[in-house]
Amino acid sequence: MLRFKLSRLPPLWLLDFWLTRLPVVFSKSYCPYCKATKSTLDRHGAKYEHLELDQEEDGSELQNALYEITGQRTVPNVFINKDHIGGNSDLQAHEGRDLDDLLKAAGAL
Hints:
Elements (H helix, E strand, L loop, with lengths): L11 H8 L4 E4 L4 H12 L5 E4 L6 H12 L6 E4 L2 E4 L1 H6 L3 H9 L4
Parallel strand pairs: 1-2
Antiparallel strand pairs: 1-3, 3-4
């Protein structure tokens, strides 16, 4: 379960992402690892949300908030069913049946 470590809460629209069970990928449009993560989810036919931090006006602030929450500074930053999965290599470690089970539990398949 996600626990906030912030001295201040993130913006409400950010909290909306965590209220969904669907996978959420915080990404940057030019990042090859982010592309690999989204490709993996696409290959599984998963429904997911994504936010390109480099295309958001407050993307760097959001990335800092994600760091405070998760301890992870890099992208992609992946959540499934409100649980922090980690980055691309963490998602790839779930590849196969385990990832399908996670996606089904999240209502993404």
